Amino acid sequence: MRSHKKYIELALKLAEKGKGTTSPNPIVGALIVKRGSIVGKGFHKKAGQDHAEIMAIKDAGKKAFNGTMYVTLEPCSHWGKTPPCTESIVEAGIREVIIGMKDPNPVVNGFNELKFRGIKTKIGILEKECKKLNEPYIKWMKTKRPFVVVKSAMSLDGKIATRTGDSKYITGREARRYVHQLRAELDAVMVGINTVLKDNPLLTPRLVSGRTPIRIVVDSKLKTPLDANVVKNEPNKLIIAATNKANKAKIKKLQHKGVNVLIVNTKKGMVDLDDLMKQLGKLEITSVMIEGGAELNSEAIKAGIVDKILFFLAPSVIGSGLGAIGDLGITKVDRSIQLKHLSSKKIGKDILVEGYL
C-alpha cells in the first residue's frame, strides 16, 4: 500500500504539468512500474491529444508488458476524441492498474471494464489529493457549471484599498506572482465593470510564462470602454456579460473587435450571476477566479456560486478604507459564513488563507 501511494504521488506531480492546458478535460498523470523501476511516464497535455495512460504506454514501449500502471484518474472506456484507454492498457499487456479516483463522467467505467478484462485493479489511492487536483473538472462534470474561486488581497484589518481608493500594491511580488500563476492555470478571470473603469486592468499572467485566461467582465449596461486594456489585448479572449439594457450599437462594435458579448438574465436590474455561470458552463469554461471588488465578491457569495475563497493577508494595517467583501445581509455573528477545510501558508511576506464554502 505504501508503494502504491508513493507512485500515485509521483503521478500527481506528473499530472500538474498539464495545469492550464487540458480544460475541459481533467489533469491526469500516469506511470508504469516494472520490478520496482519506472519504465514509462505520461501526462495529459491538451484536450484532443493522447491521454496520460497512452503517453505512459508509448514511453514504456515493450517494457509495459506485465507492468503495473499507476494513474491519478480512472481510465476512459469509451470512444471520444481519442480511443478508449482501457483497450490500449489491455493490448499493452499491463497486469495491474492502480487508480487514484473515479472519473465523475458517467460514461467512464474503466475500473469495471479493466476488471472484466481480467486485469487486477484497485481504486481510491490518495483519492483526496487526486480530487483536489481536479476540483474544476469534477464540479463542471457534475453540474455543467464552473468551479468559482474568489481571490482578494488585503491588509491585516481586511482592507483592499485606502479610503482614497489606492490599492497598488497591498501584497508583495511573490503573492502577485502566485496569482498570475493561478490566472495561467484556470480557465477564466472575472471582474466587475467598476474594476475596469477604475483600474483598467490587463488581467494577464505577466509575471509567469503561461497562457492568457479568458477575461470576463460583469457589465450590466455595457459601460466597458472600447479602448479598455481588456478589449485591446486579445479581444477574442474577452467575454462581457451584459443584460438586455445594453446598447445594441455598442454590442456590434465590441463583436466587430472579436469580443463575445453574452446577454444574461437580470436579477434586481443586474446580471444574474447564476445564469451567467450556466452560460459559461455551456462554453466549456470549467473554472473562474473572481478578482473583483467588494460588491462583486459579496454578490457572488450571495448568489451561491462561490466554491472556494483565497485571501492574501499582507502584514500591514490601513484603517479606514475599502473592505474585501460588501454587504452579505448578515446581522448576527452566529449567522456568519463559516469556511470549511481551512488551510494557510506563507508566500513571501504575505499569508494565503484558503477555505471552501
Record field, number of beta strands: 18
Give the N-to-C terminal Cα separation: 33 Å
Give the strand order of the largest sheet, numbering strands 1, 2, ... along the chain.
11-10-9-8-14-6-15-18-17
Radius of gyration of CA atoms, rounded to a whole number? 23 Å
Mean pLDDT: 94
Helix/strand order, N-terminal first? HEEHEHEHEHHEEHEHEHEHEEEHEHEEEE
Individual helix count: 12
How does this model look, in words?
A 9-stranded mixed sheet has the order 11-10-9-8-14-6-15-18-17. It is α/β, with parallel strands linked by helices. It has 12 helices and 18 strands. It has helices at residues 2-15, 52-60, 85-91, 110-116, 127-133, 135-143, 173-185, 193-199, 229-232, 248-256, 273-282, 294-302; strands at 29-34, 37-43, 68-73, 96-101, 120-123, 147-155, 159-162, 188-192, 214-218, 238-242, 260-263, 266-267, 270-271, 287-290, 308-314, 321-323, 340-347, 350-356.
Short description:
29% of the residues lie in helices and 26% in strands. By secondary structure, it is of the alpha/beta class.
Present the secondary structure layout.
Blueprint: H1 2-15, E1 29-34, E2 37-43, H2 52-60, E3 68-73, H3 85-91, E4 96-101, H4 110-116, E5 120-123, H5 127-133, H6 135-143, E6 147-155, E7 159-162, H7 173-185, E8 188-192, H8 193-199, E9 214-218, H9 229-232, E10 238-242, H10 248-256, E11 260-263, E12 266-267, E13 270-271, H11 273-282, E14 287-290, H12 294-302, E15 308-314, E16 321-323, E17 340-347, E18 350-356
